[in-house]
């Protein structure tokens, strides 16, 4: 509570500086802030992720205040996430204020009031801002119907920024670069092809037990927010959604749609250990799975929503694990060699499925035997060992 009072008092000082006549402010250099990172083309219902970023380094930054203007007929403000400094505390979150580096002071008539406060002043730390520092993430939802385009921008009217140090008793202003107020246009379309640059890879993994095939999806994603992909299954019957599947699964014969479109401030799906999506049985002599991925969006470790991209979906004979990681614990170590030796000895406790056997054949000679275990032990001992597939 004491810290909150100190911060509140400091914020009051910053705000007082903003309303001082310009004659009482000294020039203190330039500042360039941009809104970037979102999609160029979106569909109605999509979430637009916009990063607030310092384009150039600022040696001394105290704070800034400005409005983000947006077309409220096509975009709806959803949330913000502070990526530098602390987020708003629970007592002030509902009122639209807080103690973070990026906070909003309310939404009205297509304007989001943004207040930037350099936490370094409060803590007595560094007051400089490095170039390309991303300080916050704003999320809008596309709500416009049959709209050809929309835009968002930092408004020049009401923009104020000050340095951390004063010139005597005078607050020092930072002059905004013209690029700060450049609007960004987003096209709203019924048919959207999302970019592939920076898109994650989703592994499509199948396993079989007691005549039932389970299809799982796995990716290096801790917080998946959106997924839209279609599968065409050939040579399978009795296709059904897996129990406790966190995705919406629609099945029409051999055509399957897998989707999720969570609001950005809700929990996503952890894909790192694999998520069971379908169960089915084989029918006929051959089977195939054809994927047509369309859209994916994630949240990073800071909680920022990524732009929507088109993922790469691929089969993985090693089940999304590293070649040689027999037990699937995320590393190649002595435990893998021991498990393999137990399997070679015919011990009942060391049963390996087809995917594990593929990872165990490090000699890459088409069979799993003691030679593979020896290679693993040498690898674990730090000896120069080259697995057969590498």
Tell me what you see in this structure.
The protein is mainly beta and 390 residues long. It folds into three domains: 2-188, Sandwich (Immunoglobulin-like); 201-315, Immunoglobulin-like, CATH 2.60.40; 321-390, Dockerin domain (Type 1 dockerin domain, Orthogonal Bundle), CATH 1.10.1330.10. The chain has six helices and 22 strands. The chain has helices at 2-18, 90-93, 119-123, 334-344, 354-360, 370-380; strands spanning 25-31, 33-36, 41-42, 47-54, 63-70, 75-82, 102-108, 111-117, 133-142, 150-154, 160-167, 170-176, 184-188, 201-209, 212-218, 224-234, 236-241, 248-252, 255-261, 275-282, 288-298, 312-315. A hairpin with a 2-residue loop joins strand 7 (102-108) and strand 8.
Mean pLDDT: 82
* Number of DSSP strand runs: 22
In terms of DSSP E residues, the strand content is: 35-45%
Instruction: Decide which structural class fits the backbone.
Output: mainly beta
How does CATH name the architecture of the largest domain? Answer: Sandwich
- Named CATH topology of the largest domain: Immunoglobulin-like
**Number of helical segments?**
6
Indicate the overall shape: flat
| CA-atom Rg in angstroms | 27 Å
Question: N- to C-terminal separation?
Answer: 58 Å
| Helicity, as a percent range | 10-25%
Tally of domains: 3
List unreliable stretches of 5+ residues: 1-26, 86-100
State the assembly state of the protein chains. single chain
| String of helices and strands | HEEEEEEHEEHEEEEEEEEEEEEEEHHH
Describe the largest sheet.
Answer: 9 strands, mixed
CATH class of the largest domain: Mainly Beta
């Amino acid at each position: 509570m004491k810290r909150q009072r100190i911060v509140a008092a400091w914020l009051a000082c910053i705000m007082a500086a903003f309303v001082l006549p310009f004659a009482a402010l000294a020039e203190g250099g330039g500042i360039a802030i941009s809104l970037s990172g979102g999609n160029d083309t979106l569909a109605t219902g999509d979430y637009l992720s916009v990063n607030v970023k310092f384009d150039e380094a600022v040696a001394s930054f105290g704070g800034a205040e400005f409005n983000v203007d947006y077309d409220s007929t096509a975009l709806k403000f959803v949330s913000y996430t502070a990526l530098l400094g602390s987020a708003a505390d629970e007592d002030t979150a509902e009122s639209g204020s807080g103690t973070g580096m990026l906070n909003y002071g309310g939404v009205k008539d297509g304007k989001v009031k943004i207040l930037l406060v350099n936490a370094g002043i409060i803590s007595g730390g560094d007051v400089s801002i490095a170039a390309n520092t991303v300080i916050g993430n704003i999320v809008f939802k596309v709500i416009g119907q049959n709209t050809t385009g929309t835009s968002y921008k930092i408004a020049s009217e009401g923009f104020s920024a000050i340095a951390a140090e004063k010139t005597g008793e005078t607050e020092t202003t930072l002059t905004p670069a013209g690029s700060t107020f450049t609007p960004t246009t987003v096209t709203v379309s019924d048919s959207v092809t999302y970019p592939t640059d920076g898109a994650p890879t989703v592994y499509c993994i199948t396993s079989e037990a007691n005549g039932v095939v389970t299809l799982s999806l796995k990716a290096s994603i801790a917080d998946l927010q959106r997924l839209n992909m279609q599968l065409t299954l050939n040579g399978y019957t009795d296709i059904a959604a897996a129990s406790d599947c966190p995705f919406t699964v629609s099945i029409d014969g051999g055509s399957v749609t897998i989707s999720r479109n969570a609001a950005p401030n809700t929990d996503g799906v952890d894909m790192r250990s694999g998520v069971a999506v379908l169960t089915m049985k084989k029918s006929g002599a051959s089977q195939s799975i054809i994927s047509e991925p369309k859209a994916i969006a994630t949240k990073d470790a800071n909680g920022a929503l990524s732009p929507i991209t088109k993922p790469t979906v691929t089969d993985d004979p090693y089940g999304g694990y590293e070649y040689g990681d027999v037990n699937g614990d995320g590393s190649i170590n002595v435990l893998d060699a021991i498990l393999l030796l137990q399997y070679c000895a015919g011990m009942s406790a060391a049963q390996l499925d087809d995917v594990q056997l593929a990872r165990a054949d490090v000699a890459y000679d088409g069979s799993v035997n003691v030679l593979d275990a020896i290679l693993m032990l040498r690898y674990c001992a730090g000896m120069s060992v080259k697995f057969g597939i590498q």
